Amino acid sequence: FLNSQLHDYKILHFATHGLLNEDRPELSGIVLSQYEESGKSRESMIRLHDIYGLNLSADLVVLSSCESGIGKEIKGEGLRSLTNAFLQVGARAVVSSRWKVDDYATLELMEDFYRGMAKDQLTPSEALRRSKIKMFNESAYKSPFYWAAFTIQGDYLNRPRIKPGFDYKNYSLVLICSLIIFGIFYCYTHFRSK
């Protein structure tokens, strides 16, 4: 991630685990895979200082992880958060969460969110609003716990350039696989530590 040409990407989506350190916000970050394709271990965290080192021109960054929109107010500096870091390095808008989110509800919300932008040509704010209303109208996800955590900051009128042929079904498959891999990894490390 840190070595790629991110300046060329218009949408960055992180469906992973977010770590929040309220006492030392610079230690907050996003968890990626701990292993390379070859099986060799590697640093798995993208911390705030890593993000501040990026140069983005992304129309949208989606942090589909727990507590990715929370930070700490630093006097004279403002809010230190993942959301603010991505905005400061060039992202036009950032979708992030305010609390720990449910994986399955988030998957459904994100599928509909991208469908709204790709198929119906909605702005991210319109697509997010519509997705939240849709979930509210489903009995299984009626509680705001499932859908209200996600907010958008930045240019709310921004319209990411998604090709009309965007295949959200393949995206959904990748998102589901990512969640399954993360679940297996989390269970493995959780039970290993016990």
Structure description:
There is one protein chain. This protein is of the alpha/beta class. Helices cover 35% and strands 18% of the residues. It contains five helices and nine strands; from the N terminus they run ββββαβββαβααβα. Helix 3 crosses helix 4 (124-136) and helix 3 (103-118) runs antiparallel to helix 5 (168-193). The longest helix is centred in the last third of the chain and has 26 residues, at 168-193. The mean pLDDT is 81.
Features:
194 residues, alpha/beta, four-stranded mixed sheet, three-stranded antiparallel sheet, 5 helices, 35% helix, 18% strand
Reconstruct the topology from this structure:
Layout: E1 11-14, E2 17-19, E3 29-31, E4 45-47, H1 48-52, E5 60-63, E6 71-74, E7 78-81, H2 82-88, E8 93-97, H3 103-118, H4 124-136, E9 150-154, H5 168-193
Parallel strand pairs: 1-5, 5-8
Antiparallel strand pairs: 2-3, 3-4, 6-7, 8-9
